[in-house]
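Narrative of accomplishments. A recurring question from our advisory board has been how the design workflow behaves on a single, concrete structure rather than in aggregate. To address it, we present the structure tokens for one chain from the evaluation set, followed by the sequence designed for it. No filtering or post-editing was applied between the two.
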């Protein structure tokens, strides 16, 4: 199923390629940096893409890490997936964190993340005094699979 997402570029992103799917079966489109940045080991930074989106109602944009950056440099996203709501019109920015042992340089045009568009389901909450029983019950934080 295809959706139409309107996209607007800031001056910093003019001339840069728009996000695109690398292969016909890719789930995400690569997001590129619109700015130069240096991220020290153990530090994080918000990096701009120069892009603004108009995502249709009922959908969100999920910003996710790129596996190559994580494997080769120890660089990933601090909050992942990051959510871009359909009513947000500000610049798409990516919070990168450097878990590596060397400074990481980001250059304009570098692929820094990927975005996946997904449907959103709104829940209707129903307050109650009791919940049904389950096998797991209140076990959490690594409790499954432990005997």
């Amino acid at each position: 199923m295809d959706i139409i997402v309107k996209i607007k570029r800031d001056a910093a992103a003019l001339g840069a390629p728009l996000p695109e799917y690398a292969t016909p079966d890719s789930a995400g489109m690569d997001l590129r940096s619109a700015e130069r940045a240096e991220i020290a080991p153990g530090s994080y930074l918000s990096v701009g893409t120069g892009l603004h989106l108009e995502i249709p109602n009922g959908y969100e944009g999920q910003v996710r890490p790129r596996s190559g950056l994580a494997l080769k440099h120890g660089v990933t996203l601090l909050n992942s997936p990051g959510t871009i709501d359909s009513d947000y019109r500000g610049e798409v920015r990516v919070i990168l964190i450097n878990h590596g042992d060397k400074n990481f340089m980001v250059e304009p045009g570098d692929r820094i993340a990927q975005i996946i568009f997904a449907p959103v389901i709104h829940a209707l909450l129903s307050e109650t005094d009791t919940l049904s029983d389950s096998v797991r019950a209140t076990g959490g934080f690594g409790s499954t699979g432990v005997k």
